[in-house]
Write a structure and sequence with these properties.
The complex is a heterodimer of chains A (204) and B (278).
Chain A (H helix, E strand, L loop, with lengths): L5 E6 L3 H10 L9 E5 L6 H9 L6 E3 L11 E3 L5 E4 L4 E4 L11 H12 L3 E5 L8 H9 L3 E5 L8 H9 L4 E3 L1 H12 L2 H8 L8
Helix pairs in contact in A: 1-6, 3-4, 4-5
Chain B lengths: L1 H5 L3 H17 L8 H14 L5 H10 L1 H12 L9 H15 L5 E6 L5 H12 L6 E7 L2 H9 L1 E3 L3 H10 L10 E4 L2 E4 L7 E5 L11 E6 L8 H14 E9 L14 E3 L6 E4 L2
Parallel strand pairs in B: 1-2, 1-7, 2-6, 7-8
Antiparallel strand pairs in B: 3-5, 4-5, 8-10, 9-10
The chains are: A alpha/beta (204), B alpha/beta (278).
Chain lengths: 204, 278
């Protein structure tokens, strides 16, 4: 079994499309919880999670304070709050924006590294901000795994490029490659093989 | 591997010792605050103050009350906005005010008001609805220094555009600018808005109930507490609320964390306003 306990994803401008592709590529039995921070304005608050849910197989949850973390669920941080990871559940804060963003990607990444140490996967996608770099660095320093979308293929390359120059990044991947890479990283080999043959029963 | 991640880091141990020390020395109890946001604030504080570690901070705080006050400020200030989540105020106006109109006298508690943005928002709403004269608002916070600022009612002028936009969406019936005077880069709110507000120090983590209220608002305060402390505070709020009184919590807070969840009914689906019915 994988030692990873959570996947954390941060994205900004151009993020909705990127998330649809990435999360849409995850199978129904993806074994980890996935926490997502997408920069956006307060106005889209209520609409975002349902819109995203329409694009993907896994259940999407608009996080409320102290929401339990369960595997195979996508957790979206609400607008106007920071999303933080604790052991077993999420926490929200209304602290000041970080680099003009609330939710901020760094806050998600850093709190995940604090809570789960080296068992965190951090993924940074398209955007024009510099948010996420410090957080990825912390994930990496805590022994976690970091993935950044190839800036060349991202709708907006500045945020992933900033992370690549600032942090130690384990993999730079094209958007379409990320979902299958996460599956490879998180799903034990035997199980993947079984799934291809249509046998879901082997996994518990 | 699991054992390793579940064990405490040095920083966690230091934080635990600091909070225990503060409680024993001064009585402020941060031990059941949510660890993630507390940790961010502590880290930001020692960075800003050029302190090398949380242990070094503990050394100063336990020996020097001034350091405690600085830390207290950093741990307890919550920057909010006026009419944050405008739909909350729309529901309050349309669903709660009609009920309040039937009362000769209305007692309201705003818990954890910090800089006071919500208190003035509510005072404005009640004035526009013509019932402010019958209201007494108790605005409490853990921190005296912050309450003093709340009392002044002075905010950054560059925030007024956002507040005005919130105010309009919240169903405001006037021109928002009639409530403040601009001076340099500040907006000073009308003192008459404070006529029926009592500012008082109250610590949700350690103090008891002090009255019975028709309305209690505690928005985006309990998110900084862990589940245990949230349950404890919810108990306090429930015990302080009159039958058929109204409880308002933050847009993303969950009533399921209250041991009295079943004693409330929703006013509507989204506003996070509840009526005590048992």
């Amino acid at each position: 079994m994988t030692h990873f306990q959570i996947v954390t994803i941060g994205t900004s401008l151009g993020g909705f499309e990127a998330l649809s592709v990435l999360l849409g590529g995850l199978p129904k039995d993806f074994p980890l919880p996935v926490a997502v921070v997408q920069h956006r304005s307060c106005e889209d608050s209520a609409a975002f999670a349902p819109l995203l849910a329409g694009q993907i197989q896994l259940p999407v949850i608009d996080v409320e304070d102290k929401e339990k973390i369960r595997e195979g669920h996508i957790y979206v941080g609400p607008s106007n709050y920071h999303l933080l990871v604790e052991r077993g559940h999420f926490a929200l804060s209304a602290d000041e924006p970080v680099m003009y963003a609330r939710p901020a990607i760094d806050v998600l990444f850093e709190s995940a590294a604090d809570a789960f140490g080296g068992d965190v996967i951090g993924v940074l996608l398209t955007g024009m901000s510099r948010d996420g770099s410090a957080g990825l660095k912390k994930i990496k320093a805590s022994g976690g795994f970091t993935v950044v979308q190839d800036p060349e293929t991202a709708k907006h390359g500045r945020m992933p490029a900033a992370a690549i120059s600032a942090a130690l990044v384990d993999r730079v991947l094209r958007l379409e490659e990320i979902a299958s890479f996460l599956v490879e990283l998180c799903v034990p080999r035997g199980v993947r093989h079984d799934r291809r043959q249509g046998q879901h029963s082997s996994r518990r | 591997m699991r054992v390793l991640t579940q064990s405490q880091s040095v920083e966690e141990i230091e934080t635990g010792l600091l909070l225990e020390g503060i409680f024993r020395q001064y009585g402020f109890d941060f031990r059941n605050y949510a660890p993630s946001s507390l940790r961010r604030r502590l880290n930001n504080f020692i960075l800003d103050e050029h302190i090398t570690s949380i242990s070094a901070l503990q050394d100063r705080v336990l020996r020097d009350r001034q350091w405690l006050d600085r830390l207290l400020y950093a741990l307890s200030v919550n920057v909010s906005e006026m009419f944050r989540d405008p739909s909350f105020y729309v529901t309050f106006r349309t669903q709660v005010v009609p009920m309040l109109r039937t009362y000769p006298f209305i007692r309201i508690w705003l818990a954890g008001v910090s800089m006071g943005e919500e208190v003035y928002s509510l005072a404005i709403l009640l004035e526009e609805e013509g019932i402010y004269d019958r209201c007494r608002i108790y605005a409490t916070d853990i921190n005296d220094a912050i309450l003093k600022k709340a009392k002044e009612g002075i905010y950054r002028l560059d925030q007024m555009r956002m507040y005005t936009s919130n105010y309009i969406k919240a169903g405001g019936t006037q021109s928002f600018s009639r409530y403040y005077t601009a001076a340099y880069d500040r907006a000073i709110f009308k003192t008459s808005l404070r006529n029926n507000i009592v500012f008082a120090q109250h610590n949700l983590a350690t103090d008891a109930s002090f009255n019975e209220f028709n309305v209690i608002m505690c928005r985006n305060v309990m998110i900084y507490f862990n589940n245990e402390l949230q349950a404890q505070v919810h108990r306090l709020l429930y015990e302080s609320l009159a039958m058929f009184g109204i409880l308002g919590i933050g847009a993303k807070e969950a009533l399921r964390l209250s041991p009295h969840e079943n004693s409330y009914e929703e006013i509507d689906k989204t506003s996070k306003l509840y009526r005590r019915i048992a």
